[in-house]
Amino acid sequence: MNKSSLLEKASSQEITTRDCSVEIWMKEVAQKQRLGTTYGRDAKIILPDRVLNESPLRQSLIDEFAFKALSEDYGTRGICHLAAMAQSSEEHEFLVTQVFDEAMHARAFKHHLEEIGACDTNLDTFIREKYAEEIRFIFTPLNDFFHNVAIENKNYLGGVTILTIILEGVLAPTAEMGELKWQRLNPVASNIQHQANLDEIRHLTICANIIKEAIERNPQVLGQVGTVLYDGMELWKKIPIKDIVYKREVLFQKGMFEHKNIVGDQPLTEELRLIDSTPEQRLQLTFEWTQQMQASRIKYMGLEKLMQ
Fold first, then answer.
1. What Gene3D superfamilies does the record point to (predicted)?
2. N or C: which end of the chain has fewer CB within 10 A?
C-alpha cells in the first residue's frame, strides 16, 4: 500500500492547543508560513494559459476547486460553533485560528476559480447552482449530522471528532492528491493545495490531541465519542463522494493526455508515473490515504477498540 506523505508528517508530530495560541499562530503562520503568499499561494508562481481555455483539464479543475471551496465553507461555519463551545481558553484560541485557516483556504479556492474565469456571474451563486447535487447528497447530510451532534445535543467533543475524522481526515488526502497531480499542469493549483496541507497537518494533529487528552482526563467520554465516530463512519460509507471524485478524474485524464509533453515523467508515487495512472488508480490511492489517515487518528485518540 502506498503511504501518504501527509499522514507521515501528521503522525510524526505531537502538537497541542498550547502550541497554537493566537499569539503563536500570528508569528508562526500568519507572519512566517504565509510570508510571500497571496490568496493562499506563492505570489511568484505564474498561472499557465492552458487552464484559461475551455477543455477537459480546465473543467476538472473547476469541478475540483468548487467542491473544495464548498468543503472549506462548510468547515469554517462548523468550527465557528465549536470555538464558541470550547472547554478551555487554549482550545478556544486554537479553534479561532482554525476558522481563519479554513476561511483562507475557501478564499484561495474561490480566487483561483475567479482568475481562470470559471463563471461570469456571482461565484457563490454559480457554485451553489451548478453543484447543487453535491450539496444535496454530500454536504447536507454531513452538515446535518454535525449540527445534530454538536449543536442540538451540545456535544463539543463529538463535534471535534467529526471534524478530525470525517471532515479533515477526508479533505487532507484529497488535497494531497491535488497538490501532486497539478504540479506541472497548473503549479498555481498545486501550490494552493500545498499551502493548505501545511495547515491541515496542524489541524489534524491538534484536534486529535484534544480528544486524546479529554479521554485521558475522563475515560467516561470514550463511549460518547465512540458512538459519534461509529455513526459518522457509517454515514461516510453512504454518501456518493467516490462518484463525484471519479467524474472529475475522468476529465483530468483527458486533459492530462492532451498535455503529455508537460506532464512528462512526473511521479505520482514511487512506483507510478502520473501519465501512467488511471482515474481508478488515483481514486483508489486517494481513498487508501483517507483510510490510513482515519485509522491513524483513531489509534492516536485511543478509539481503535471501539471500531473493531
1. Ribonucleotide Reductase, subunit A (1.10.620.20)
2. C
The residue type at 293: M
| Residue 179 amino acid letter | E
Read off the pLDDT of residues 51-64 as tens digits, 9 standing for 90 and up.
Answer: 999 999 999 999 99
Q: Which of 122-131, 171-180, 217-226, 267-276 has the lowest mean pLDDT?
A: 171-180
Which helix H or strand E contains 37, and what residues bound it?
Answer: strand 37-38
Rounded Cα–Cα distance for residues 175 and 18 (Å) = 26
Q: Report the candidate in 243, 228, 43, 57 with the shortest Cα–Cα distance to residue 147.
A: 228
Domains in the chain: boundaries: 5-41+50-307
Helices within 86-186 (DSSP H only):
89-115, 123-130, 132-134, 140-146, 156-161, 169-181
CATH class (in words) of the domain with range 5-41+50-307: mainly alpha
Amino acid 5: pLDDT: 66
Mean pLDDT confidence for 207-220: 93
Helix axes 241-258, 56-85, angle to 10 degrees: 140
Residues sharing a CB contact under 8 Å with residue 14, sequence separation 6 or more, in sequence order: 205, 209
